[in-house]
Input
Amino acid sequence: MKLLPERTVERLSQYRRVLQRQLDNGTESIYSHELAKLLHITPVQVRRDIMLMGHSGTLRRGYNIENLIHLIGQIIDCSGQQKIAIIGIGNLGEALANYLTENKTKLQLSAVFDNNMDKVGKIYSGIVCYNIKNLKKIVQRENITIGILTVPPSQANEIALKLKEAGILGIINYTPVSINVKGIFIEQYDVITSLEKVAYFAKPKNAAILQEGCK
Amino acid sequence: MKLLPERTVERLSQYRRVLQRQLDNGTESIYSHELAKLLHITPVQVRRDIMLMGHSGTLRRGYNIENLIHLIGQIIDCSGQQKIAIIGIGNLGEALANYLTENKTKLQLSAVFDNNMDKVGKIYSGIVCYNIKNLKKIVQRENITIGILTVPPSQANEIALKLKEAGILGIINYTPVSINVKGIFIEQYDVITSLEKVAYFAKPKNAAILQEGCK
DNA sequence: TAGATTGTTAATCGATTAACAATC
DNA sequence: TAGATTGTTAATCGATTAACAATC
Output
């Protein structure tokens, strides 16, 4: 079996959310150009993504929304529930913890960790904060597979390695440092980098060049 | 003048941070393979990025760190200071506000907005929260060019449009909805999408396929 | 000189888009 | 049938990597 392209997987997540909204509104089926419009992408891209999942629509009625949601679930979600840990309960870690418990997905926040003894034992979004020393033990006991890294930069690499050793299969790295752990899936989302990127393209001179290209 | 590739700009931001750390340690110059190692990328990519900036190193001593930092600053930063607004002070917005004031960059958080009257007038990270009704007035008065969007999904599109009308040139959209505003630079960073993406590649079966590919 | 390094072009890879056949 | 839609291949675009000339 081949893996789906990264960008396609990202869009599947987005398709599912807007499709669920359509379903809740009582819509049963949707054309590729309608789904495309909701995400501001092209209909071809929608059809190609759906093709890559191995799904088929009907020629005159488009795609059955319920089937599509179900299929995306089979592809993205695990058969069992996938569990998440947040490592580092600062401002960002805490905000993400709240965000995850508010927004229901199949992904379940199962543990948070910190090395500050003032935080250990406290409850964050209904989850007790463990001492980071017990990382491996808890991750293995709870069978956690995904780690969200929101520790201070100086600790990022070391803890990423520990996460891998504990059996974590994917990490979202919100720290500003590049982490060097091979063999697992790592996604880098650094706030400062994204901000400086936007700043570059939003410099008045550059924004003018961008706008010309759009016409 | 041509714009730099998006990925190159992202890396410039990362180069600058690690270079600053090197400079603080008293290092004066650096080889492409050393800089590459710090970010876990290839030396060729480093040299190509530097070439795209129009900079040159010396053949036997590599790149002068101070010059490089200065040049990256000229490219990313505005001549004047660029100002930022955060729109929507929930958990995430507040965490980002703290994060921005803690981590010094040339980018200055100059206003935060909310439509909840309990929040309007309160101070967040030293910045007073304005009523979102005054968005246009404040943005123009303060000459803000970058907006961070952390409002509830239902308001995202509408407020993005208002930001554009107020003269904002770039938006970082942390809401889970795709926003439809043309002519300005928009960057999408949705927490659920990134999480579901990592979940897909961290499914045990898929992780195994990934790991094989690495060998 | 030999070895190490930079600078740059050409090749490759991944993702998007254009083109179009198939069909209801 | 004509028009609208899906499914899919080929072309294009953007980014990375390989190859290598230049030079200290």
